[in-house]
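Risk register update: the risk of archive-format incompatibility is retired. Evidence:
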Amino acid sequence: MASIVNSLSLSRRGLFYKAAEGGAAVAVAGAMVFDPFATLAVVDGRAVPNSEAAAVGAVGLWIDLAGCSVCRHDVPAACSGTLVARDLVLSARHCLDIPRELNGTLDKVVFSNNLLDPNAPSAKVAAVRTPADYGFTATDSGSVGGLDGTDLMLIKLATPAPAEWRPQRMAFGLEDAILGLSSSKAGSNAGSGGDKAVGLTELIGNPSLMVYGFGDSVDDFASYSSGLLHRLPLVASSEVGPAKTNFFAKPVVSNAAAAAAAQPPAQSQRLPGTCNGDSGSAALLGTGTGGADPAAGPASGGGASVVVGVVSATSVPCAGSTTVLVNPGSLRAFLTKASADLGSPLPVASEADWKRFLNGGAL
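Archived output:
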């Protein structure tokens, strides 16, 4: 655990820097995750068509580095995010904080499977809310390994998302629905972090999740390969519950990829993992995940999906990396208040909604 935490501590800021021409350090796309989607994670995973990006609400965050004196100016820095209302995007707070330290600007949100497509629709960032705005601090209890469990932000868009982009629901109350509790009890207990709260891990074991991110497709800090949307299956490797502000996850590795990586010389880059630029990606729990294909996205399986995590950090190297995700359920009070303050209160699923979801229907 200590070695993982130390690696993550070094990577979040480090990932934002890559080798520039002449060996100078530059901030390049990506960065904010500690190590968002690795390449072969992407190669072993799947490229995502625009239709699927829209179905799961995946968006790219365009970070303008024109004001940064040590950054490349021909490309943006990249983060990932998820539409949670027609004009609200959920992402990682460090996608705002680290650019500010470099005199960069979180400028706009792009609706496309290609962040760099000049013809893609986009919306300017109108406002941002973070847990700190409501008194939530990184020292709040429940974090794994002492890592920041408040690495979330809500982005208010200046204009609504394109009609085909589908907002994703938060998993608030899902545990109570699985237990078959009444909607009134779900409303009072879900996400409270109290002694009676029950987490997903206790109910269904370590959940299998799907992450969509615009991070690096090549596990190489000297090159820029962010910008194209890929999906990657992960499985939680630590407890997911309302009393935990974050959790760990590992990539799902096929037998073929594992065998190839074991061949001499070592080909660890053949392993999947999150990497630079995947910060802010949502980890989706779906009832329709494509059947027998473990790399199929929720949209391809015909079922619904809900947000149970947000990518905050990744160990290095990207290949085979351990990902740290913030649990939005532990910050339900922040998300509820901030979304209302921004004019688009997050919807709350009813008992009937959850029953439909658990039977493979859409929320």
